[in-house]
Write a structure and sequence with these properties.
Length: 48
Amino acid sequence: MAFAAGAMLFVISDEIIPESHRKGLEKEGTIGVIVGFVVMMFLDIALG
């Protein structure tokens, strides 16, 4: 399940947010999306 979730985050960051993959910054853009998602989930659990 974790692999499928990671693959889905990559697809979302690659297809829906193409600006994150311009000028050769694919790795940094994808890592930023994943870190943002993890922070969002942490805050949802901590504050919810």
